[in-house]
Every structure is written in structure tokens, then in C-alpha cells.
Protein 1
Amino acid sequence: MATVETSTGTVVSHWIGGKPYAATSGRFGPLMNPATGEQIAEVGFASVGDADHAVASAKAAFPEWRATALSRRAEILFRFRELIAQNKQQIAEIVSRENGKTMADAHGEVARGLENVEFACGIPNLLKGGYTEQASRGVDVYQIRQPLGVVAGITPFNFPVMVPLWMLSNAIACGNAFVLKPSEKVPGASVLLAQLLKEAGLPDGVLNLVHGDKVAVDRILDHPDIKAVSFVGSTPIAKYIYETSTRNGKRVQALGGAKNHMLVLPDADINMAADAAVSAGYGAAGERCMAISVILAVGTVAEPLIDAIRERMTKIKVGPGSDPSSEMGPLITREHRDRVASHLDKATAEGATVTVDGRKNPLTKQKGFYLAPSLIDNAKPGMQCYDQEIFGPVLSVVRVDSYAEAINLINENPFGNGTAVFTQNGGAARQFQFDVEVGMVGINVPIPVPVAYYSFGGWKNSLFGDLHMYGPEGVQFYTRSKVVTSRWPNPSSSKVDLGFPQMR
Ligand code: NAD
């Protein structure tokens, strides 16, 4: 990781113009190891001047990068892909140390991020436009896609590698220069990605990083040279990013929070549904935007399903991500762990049943930010555990009488990121896919994160903007189209004609 040694310790530096750049603001945040509860280093927070410097570096690099041949851009991305693969262990270690997720999960994240680089390697094909010959006599019309200029990405703590790769792979491949503001809680992996891109041959200034908080973000949103902003994070901030960026005339895609429902119909295979609920509810300590948060158990399925979930969840080994036997790590910060745990008391007070209380695990008494898997039964709309995004290892079960009641709950929910149905009935699954007002749907698949050649995005309060992230819509987001109408007339046939051009 690019760091600077100072008299007070190690500081994670920005990356501007192809090299580490020490923060000038005098403001720092702690970089914590959630598994030990100890501080590892400091993160230098960008000032407005630091952010301006990053944007200026990107602006200077843009003209030459935009003119670079597509085959050369693809060559750099292919090399970047190889370098990520070669360094995946180091990347995963940084992710696990700063975020807390297990090494297996960190490797999974790197692999899913890599898919986005692989998609972007196909940029010569992705930027092909349409061509119409003889739209009129001797007139051809064609569409080309051109980069926007300097574009920015602002990313959350829960995917320190994958989400930056969702954005920067396509943005750079399309010929833009990119400024990334990663989560200040997990800054290390993106610095390593910047180093690898340089090693892959990316010209200096095409990718720049600034670490920090609202100061850096607000400068990105205000800066006149930034043409588009991609954001992934919580809903209130996503809404703020969308409103501020659009007011400032920028293109924006802002992905927000989630409350993902898993609908289990009475004919579902109980063991398969329980395996999926536990994996998707407690994987990454529930800190995935596609994690299952609510189980809608229809009719008689509730009792056997809850028994099967309880049996599985109590066997999950919670521990530091660096221990290969750990299946679930700590949460990101002490404050977040305490907030997640507070939902358990509130659920009891509101009349739900805390069936498994993760606070009873002795690990919660240690310095790391642990909370073992927890299960709330008899949750209902109007209760905090149902109404709010918990973003931790707490699953809530809502018992419903019918499919109609279940679909109504999902569709009335203000979030619409992901959802899943578990059933053995193809017709029921198809009806669910038709009815549900959610952007990403799984049929017997609990975390339906689309592959890189589709696009990722929720509906309702889970996405502000028009285009989803990565895949074909990512290419659309990072380019604007130009339509050219072209004629090569014989000069001898030229004449003045004030009529409106007609095609027939
Ligand atoms: P967050 O919204 O707190 O932070 C995201 C980014 O915004 C960070 O870079 C942070 O520095 C910045 N930020 C925070 N507060 C800000 C403010 N007041 N002004 C300007 N910038 C600010 O989110 P998080 O806690 O890092 O991540 C967890 C959230 O992200 C969850 O809500 C989760 O559902 C969501 N998420 C969504 C997706 C998705 O694809 N929809 C994916 C991952 C995470």
C-alpha cells in the first residue's frame, strides 16, 4: 500500500499523477482493523486543494488518453487483469484486514471485480456504433460514442475492490480520466489497484485517488471539470449525491441501500432455502447490499424453515478474517456493531421474538467489532427491524399467509435492490419475476448480483439516476453519443437550397 511515514506514524496517501501524494489538509482519520479493534494507520483526508489537484491531473491526462487507440487501451486492461490475478492474495489480505471479511470472501470479491476488468477488455467491440448507408442519396448516417472527460467515483466500505472496479474499468476503457474517492474506512486496496494500473501501462493522471470525507466528496460534486459521478453507498447519501450532482449539471448514477426480501413458498425445498438464507443473510456479516435481510415465510413453511435456519446459523464460526476456519468476520466499526445490536432490544420491545441473540457469543466481549448471527421472528412492518436497513448479521422473519400478502410487502417497501423467491414451481417463480418491483431478482438464487456483461442496479430508493452500473449500461453512462450525417458530393452537383433537408 502506498503510505508515507511521518513523525506520528503511517499515513495512507492519495494517488495523483501516477504517484503517491501526501495529504496537505492536516486532517486525518483512523484506519482500523475491525478484527482486533486496533488502529493500523491513519488516512490523510483530502482538502479542496488536494481534490482540485487530482481533477487537474485527470484533466491534463484526458486528451492524450482519449486519443489512445482502443487496442492499446484493451492491452493495458488485459495486463491489469493479469496483475490483479497475480496479486490477488495481497489484495485479499488488505481487504480482509481493513474491512474484516474472511479471506475466502475477500477472494470472492476480487474474482467478481476481475469480471468487470475482463468485460472492459472488450472495449473495441463495446464501442461499436451503428451505420446506415444511403439514408438519402449519397448520404450516410452513423453513431459514435465518445468519452465524457473527467469522471468520478465515490465508493462504500463493504466492497473495497469490487465496487471501484465496477466503475473505473469501464470509465477508463471508454477513454475517460477517473478520480476515485474510496471509503475512508478501507482505502488500501484502491491504492494497490492504482499501482497495478500504472504497472500495466496506464498513463499517469488517467486514474487518481483522493481519500477523505465530505470535504473531498463535496468538491467532486461541485467541480466544474467533473462531468459525471458514480456513487455506491447508503440511501441518504446517494440521494444527496444525486440531487447535488444533477443541480450542478452532471450525469449521475447513485446506488443506495437495500432491504432484500427472500420469499419462501410452501413448496420450497426447506434445506435448500435454509442454506441460502443463512449464506446470504450472514455472509460478510450481513454487510452486503445484496444480503438477505427479511425472510417472508408463507404459511406452514415458517416452523420447519426457522428450525433449519437456527440449526445452521448456530454452527457458523465467527472470528478474524485472517483465520482460515472463520466463516464470518467482525463488523466494520464498533459504532456500527452497536447500532446493529441495538435492533435486537428494539425488536423485543416492539413485540418481535429474538430467537437467536448473537450478543451471547463471547467474542462480542473482545476488542474486535463482533456480533454473532442473530434471528428475529414475528417481525412486521412498522417495527424498526423491518423498516430500516440493518446492514449486519441479523435476519428477520415475517410470517405471511399468502403469496399476495408477500408480494405486496416487497412492492410497498421503499427499497428495491435485490430479492429472491424459493420454490419448485416454475409458474410461481415466473409470476414473481413478473410482479416484483425490484431491480435484481433471484429464482432459487439468494444473492443475484448480475454477471459483468449485464448491469447492476436496484429500483426505488436503491438507485437514483437512469442508468445501472457496469456492463452495457456502464458503457452508456461513461460515453455520450454523437450522430454524424455525411455526404461526399460531386462538387459539380453543388447548389444553394434553403429547403429543410429531406431524405426521400
Ligand atoms: P456511506 O453512504 O456512509 O458512504 C459511502 C461513501 O460516501 C463513502 O465514500 C463516504 O466517505 C461518503 N460519505 C459518507 N457520508 C457522506 C456525506 N455526509 N457527504 C458526502 N459523502 C459522504 O455508505 P457505507 O457505510 O460506506 O456503505 C454501506 C451502505 O452502502 C449500505 O447502505 C449499503 O446498502 C450500501 N451499498 C449499496 C450498494 C448497491 O449497489 N446498491 C453496494 C454496496 C453498498
Note: The longest strand covers residues 139-147.
Protein 2
Amino acid sequence: MKSTYGHFDDAAREYVVTRPDTPLPWLNYLGQDDLYGLCTNTAGGYTFWRDARLRRLTRYRHNNVPYDLGGRYLYVRDGDAVWNPGWKPTKTPLDRYECRHGLGYTRITGAKDGVEVELLFFVPLGENAEVWRTTVRNRSGARKDLRLFSYLEFCFYEALNDMTNFQRTYSIGEVEVEGSAIYHTTEYRERRDHYTVFACTREVAGFDTSRDAFVGVHNGLHEAAVPFEGAARGSVAHGWNPIGSHQVDLALEPGGEESFAFVLAYVDNDGVDRFEWPAVVNKERGRALVERYTREGAVDEAFDGVRAFWDDLLSTFEVDCPDEHAQRMANVWNPYQCMATFNLSRAASLFESGIGRGMGFRDSNQDVLGFVHLIPDRARQRILDLAGTQLSDGTCFHQYQPLTKQGNDAIGGDFYDDHLWLILSTCAYVKETGDVALLDEPVGYADTPGSAETLLHHLETSIAYTLSRRGEHGLPLIGHADWNDCLNLNCFSTQPDESFQTAGDVEGSRAESVMIAGLFLYACRELAALFRRLGRAGEATRLDGLHADMLSAVEEHAWDGDWYVRAFDAAGEPVGSRVCEEGQIFIESQGWCVLGGAGGGNGRARRALESVDERLATEHGIVLHQPAYTRYRVELGEISSYPPGYKENAGVFCHNNTWITLAWCSLGEGERALDTYLAICPSAQESRIDTYRSEPYVYAQVIAGRDAAIPGEAKNSWLTGTAAWTFVSLSQGILGVKPDYDGLRIDPCIPRSWRSYRVRRRFRGTRYDISVENPDGVCSGVRSLTVDGRAVDGNVVPPAAGPGPVRVDVVLG
Ligand code: BGC
């Protein structure tokens, strides 16, 4: 199914946008190591190094009029016509437009009057640089004399200051120009030892570095003075707003073609002389970097490197199954999105300014779950970094800045779920790799510098922390909020200028979270299994006991008759109960209680999930609760501040839909599992894209719920925990390939109509070719398993010694 705006090219692993005026800007990410860029289908976006707040290299104004203004622009002047291959900012009608968002790159092609310009944006592996390969073709019958003008606007690194402190920023801008390279050197003279260079690998005919000169003080980018006048001004910025622009003159005979590149790089002069002349920046490293891409063939080789990198990563998990959406997402877009969430947590997207948030503690731990199979070593380091922001009593900094790895004091801690997610990420890593040595890594607590407790100590501290904070029903206290940041049972905020999350806790509060109880149950089981694996049966048994105690508290106090209540508020009243006027049933406690093992022997698990189906499921996904809150409730906080149907107030919050998918899997209900997945699957939304509006290739955080004005409209795409959890629910829940301590556990939960499918999985250095047959049309249950032709008892494929491939044949029944 194609949408009016584009289609998937599965073989090329690209989404092809065929119209620039998409319902919203459709985004891609460039970069995989330290330098990242946001790139929309009209070449909008910005670039930063490591930290979108502290090392922003270029400026961008997303929520502008129009949206998505500023980016990697190239103006083409052909005679009197001025146009952009990506349509914006001039929006001159093009004869042809195409944007291919691929893995780590975006290729935009625009054509007009026989001139075709292709821009390929990517970040070479291991390089702090973004390359814009530019190919110009003359497909007309006549010679073309063209002028191209590149354009980007430099940011003064600290992005918040950059857009607020104009009394300073208007006076500090500095640049140096050397040949085809523009050096942005603001603040270098005093305390920075890094600069940005924007260079062209080809000889240029002119340049500009002043925005006022290039654009004009009263002009918009769509009418920028220089390209419309036709000649660069050679402006040198002193203060105000430095930009980088090159003028490139090309004469192309009919059929002629020329290719070169622009390179935008972040250069650190740490360890070398800072100046090559008094007050002249030492550019040695910048020159060398640009030089590397000037060599014939270098740009293409670098691009091949990015492609090979992704080919290799995606070969870790490949599926061939009857559902086209599940297959395409699991093979390409879902792991790709997992890389973005792993790299950026929730920091920088079209919905996050890159200023407000660093790396979230709970977010990043969950991101590990969908990423660990791709690059386990990076997941390992992330787990240690996260653990390092936990305090010795178990509290976790809710966020930390990626540049400094220090906890963010403004947000602090006291979200009483954070610490438990560390257990999930750690166990996922050990199951994937078998590397139990991680548990013995010394990692200090943030409040006791020099402490060298092990990671395992952090996990035990996390369990103890929940136990030490329990309410009158024996359930965990909620603190500022649990996973649902907007369920603020303690803040009682009446002041519009306060943050709901940190507004302080009401005296004597008894607010408890049933969701944390479910998460605790799950974490206990995970940690118990880990201890068993370590041969420490005593600790495992102790955790079994803790699980049993919490389970009885849940079953005794949290069962509401047809579902599990969501919480108890500060006054001890239930939230998410049939006795409530609004918000009678919530999704999160059903998912987590079932996943934690509640309702198993007594039919409640199934009943709870049926209630979700009856009361919360819609064609656009499962809404967070019902009925939606129609007025602000001070005892509930931010959740009731959203209009009904939006965000946490009964929107479809895709992240938590995945827990229901997994919960259905735990009951062996394959149809239910796939249906819940497909309702939020972006690839399945192409037929209704004018309503859905967001990118059809990545999951969105929210889809407007049934109470909203436009149900089914998606927002906050890309950086969402939905990515990691859908990958887990698809690959482990539905397709049933679960890394475990003793090997790969095969435990599918598929629709009855699926008669066979295949998975190729790389696991601990060996490739497994897994073929699943379902002759009797069941959902789950492994009847037989053979590994390289030899029958194996049970459903675990033991780790093999060599690289494989190892052939695994599974018959369900
Ligand atoms: C936050 C998560 C939170 C979720 C639900 C997201 O914006 O990043 O930490 O769990 O919202 O409130």
C-alpha cells in the first residue's frame, strides 16, 4: 500500500518520500557514534556533537512558521530561477522531487528545467563530520551555467543560551575563512578548544559568513538576498549571526555531471597548540579532516562504510514471516529506531528541543532492551554510566547530561520506578552476551565519590529501595511519578509555574503504585534467575520470597473485580477502579501485573486483559485509561491537565501497548498479540496517512485517543520507548526468539494462520537459522526442536562454539 506521500523500498531499506509537502516534516537521523544530525525530508534540521544542548553546531527552528526552518540548504541558480533540491526554503515548484530516508543517510534529489541535483547527507563512521555529497547533472539539451549556494547557520554550542541570551550572542560571533573552508570560531579565544568547520571539497567562487548579508535583515530564507541577486558578497561576520555559505559555479555541457561534497565538522584541539598565530585558530586538524574527503573516491568509500555498518548490524536479526508490516519493521525500521533511542534517549527530535532533556534513567535502561543485540559493548557501557548516576540509597538521577555523565540536579530523583529498570537492562545484557563479568564491574554511587561497589550491588540496592518505600497496602510508594510521568499523586499543584514532576511532595502521603508493584514482581524474577545462573541459590530463594510477598499484596489489595487498580492516591483512595468517576481502568497495571506473574493461577490475568480489550482497545491502539479525565484533578496531577484523548490523558501511548502484546504472549494468545502490535505499527498506517500524519516508518509516542478531536493522529515520533519494547515484543514475544542465560529460548506466540516462518539470529558470535513450522495451526507450544538435525529436549538452543550457521528446526504443536 502506497500513501500519497511515498512508499517503502524494502529491498533498498529506504522510505521514499515522493512529495515534499508531507503532513508533517518526516525526519531521519544521521550519525552513529558521536556526531549526529536531524534531517527532514526537505533537508531541515541541525547537527550536534554528543550533546544536543551543550555542543550544538548548527541552528534550526522547528516550531516556526512554517515548521522545519533552517538546515542543510543548497540554492540552485539557473538563469533567473532559484530553487532548492529539497523544495524548501524557496518552495519553487520542482519538476521532480524525491527524498530517500535510509539507514544513517538521507538522499534528496530535485530536478528543474533539465538540471538534477542530488544531495546525499551522512556521517562517516568514526568521524566527527557530516558529509553532503552533491551531484549535479545536466539532463537538458543545452549547456548550463549554474551557481550553487550552500547555506547553514552556526549555533554557539550551548543551545539554550544561544537562543535566549542575545545581549551576549549578538556580540561574540567570530569566523575565519581559508580557501574553501569557513571556520566558526566563536568563544574559541577564551575558553573553548573546539571549533566547527564547513568546507567545500571543490574550489569555490565566493563565500558568505554573515546572515544579515546573505539573507538580508528583513528577508526570509525563501528570498535570501545572495542567491536571488546571484553573487556571494564575501561577508565576514563580526558578531550577530554567523553562517556558512559557499558559492560554487558550474558549467555543464548536455549530459554533463559533477560531484563534490560539503563537509561540516566538529574539531577538538585538545592536546595541540590552540593558536597557529596570535589570535589565529590552529586549523591543522580541520584541514586534515577536510583533506580526507577531497581525495577522489573518499566520499563514496565513506558512504559504503555506513552502508556496510548497517548491513552487518541488521544481519543480527532477520525474519521472513507472513505479515509484511511486522517483517519490515523487525528487519529494518524497528532496530534502526532502537539505535536512535539508544543514542539520544529522549533528547533531540522534532518534538524535543535537545535542550530540556538529557539521557533519561528509565528511558535509557529500556532503550537497552531493544539495542543490546546490535552492539552489546555499547549497551554495557551505557548500563555502567546509568548505574553511576544512582545514589547509595537507591535513588536515581532521573536524567543525566551525555557530555558530562553527571546527574541533572534540576530534575533530581524520587521517581520510584527508575532503579528497577536497571535490573531489566542488566539482565538483558547478560542473557544476550553471557558476560557475567559486567556484574562485578566497580561502579560508584553518585553521592559517594570514589566508592567502588559492583554493578550487582546496585541491583540489590534497587530491590531494597523499593522494599523500604512501601505504603499501607504493602505496595511500592510512587514518589514524584512512576513510568507514567504524568501520574503525580503527590504534588497537588495549583500553580501554573510549577513543574508537575518536581513540585514537591504533600506531607504524609500514602500514594502507592500498582504498576511499580508489577514491575517489582518482574524485576524480582529476573534477578532471581540471574542469581541462580550465578550459582547463588540462597539469594535467588530470598528474591522468590520477596516476589511472593509482593504478589500477595497485589492480589489482596489491587484486584478490582475485573482488572488491577492503577494506584492508591495520597489519601489512600484507588485510582483506576470501578469506584472512580473517571479513569476507572488503566493499561499499565494490567500489563505489568500480568508480566510480573500476577493473576496466573486464578484467571485474573486473562480477565484483566479481556477488560483492556473491552474498555480500552480502539482501532488506533489501546488508550491509556477510560473514561478520560474531563477536569483537572489536583490529586492526580499532569495526567488530568491534558485535554481528553491526548497524551497521558487517555491517548494511545504506544509504549505501554507493547506490554499488553507481551502479556497476551504470556497467555499464548497469538492473534491478540499480533493485533495489538499492528494497531500501533506505523507501516500499517499508510492507507490513512492524512489522519496519522507522522512518519510511517517509525513508531510514534502517542496516537490521539477516541476522546480526541481527531482520533488516530500521531505525535512525538522517533524518540520513544515504543521502539525498544516493540522490538522485544515482536522478536521475543511473537516470533519467540528469546536470548536466555543458557542459550536461545524458542517460544513463539503467533496467529494460527501462520504456517511457517524463519528467523536468522546472531547470538554470542554464532549464526542460527531458525525455521518454525506450524502444521496444526496453533499459536504457541514447541512440539519438537532439532539443532543441526539432533533432537533437543525442551525449547532452548544451547550456545554453539563456532560461527555457524547452526540450523534449528522447530515444530509447534
Ligand atoms: C517519558 C517517559 C515516560 C513517558 C510516560 C515520556 O515522555 O520520556 O519517561 O515514561 O513519557 O509518561
Note: The CA atoms of residues 13 and 102 lie 6 Å apart.
